[in-house]
Amino acid sequence: MDRELTGRICRLRQYRNDDAEAVRALADDYEVARWMTRAFPHPYRLEDAREWIALSLSRARGPHFAVEVDGALAGGIGFQPLAGERSGSALFGYWLGRKYWGRGVGTDAATTLADAALASGIVYRLEATVFAENVASARVLEKSGFGFEATMRGYYLDRDDRVCDGLLYARVEEPASR
């Protein structure tokens, strides 16, 4: 899979070590962290950004990209291939800094990466879960070709320890050999 992908609005590229401060500045916002899993820390420290960049560059968790708009870091996106009986499937996720919300960046990034991932043959199924209350993220997935599959009751604890439902979306392109 290419290490750089170009959409209509954004560019997806490898993270660079010098992205750490920009990642920290965008990610250290409660409104960004609010609908992310707790693996996404809040507060988001510079050390968290450095650790994430090192992990993403190692590709230990699958392809992850910095989302760039007009030469500035806007967020991140990636997927994590699964193994065993889930081979061919991957967990898909993204986040954007608040100033990039509502501009079509999320939809462009998600469509660009999903198209490339499914065309690469690495996976045939991408799945993403979102907090049920995160209507904007669900809409990004729908506009990017993901279909709604299920409501998962009591799936998450939000940042305030409130039990929340999750929504499961997937984009599937069956391989020709199946």
Write the topology of this structure.
Layout: E1 4-6, E2 11-13, H1 20-27, H2 30-33, H3 46-58, E3 64-69, E4 72-81, E5 89-96, H4 105-120, E6 125-131, H5 135-143, E7 147-157, E8 163-172
What does this structure look like?
- With 178 residues, the chain is of the alpha+beta class.
- 28% of the residues lie in helices and 33% in strands.
- The chain has one domain: 3-Layer(aba) Sandwich (Aminopeptidase).
- The protein has an eight-stranded mixed β-sheet, sandwiched between helices.
- Strand 1 and strand 2 form a beta hairpin.
- The longest helix has 16 residues.
- It is globular, with a radius of gyration of 16 Å.
- It starts with a strand and ends in a 6-residue tail after the last strand.
- The mean pLDDT is 95.
What's the alpha carbon Rg, rounded to whole Å? Answer: 16 Å
CATH topology: Aminopeptidase
CATH class identity: Alpha Beta
Secondary structure tally: strands: 8
Q: Sketch the topology as an H/E string, one letter per element.
A: EEHHHEEEHEHEE
Tell me the count of domains.
Answer: 1
- Strand order in space, largest sheet: 1-2-3-4-5-6-8-7
- Total helices: the number is 5
Question: What fraction of the residues are assigned to beta strands by DSSP?
Answer: 25-35%
Distance between the termini: 22 Å
Low-confidence segments: none
Report the structural category: alpha+beta
Helix % is 25-40%
Q: Shape from CA axes?
A: globular
Could you tell me the mean pLDDT?
95
CATH-defined architecture = 3-Layer(aba) Sandwich
How would you sum up the major sheet? 8 strands, mixed
CATH superfamily: Gcn5-related N-acetyltransferase (GNAT)
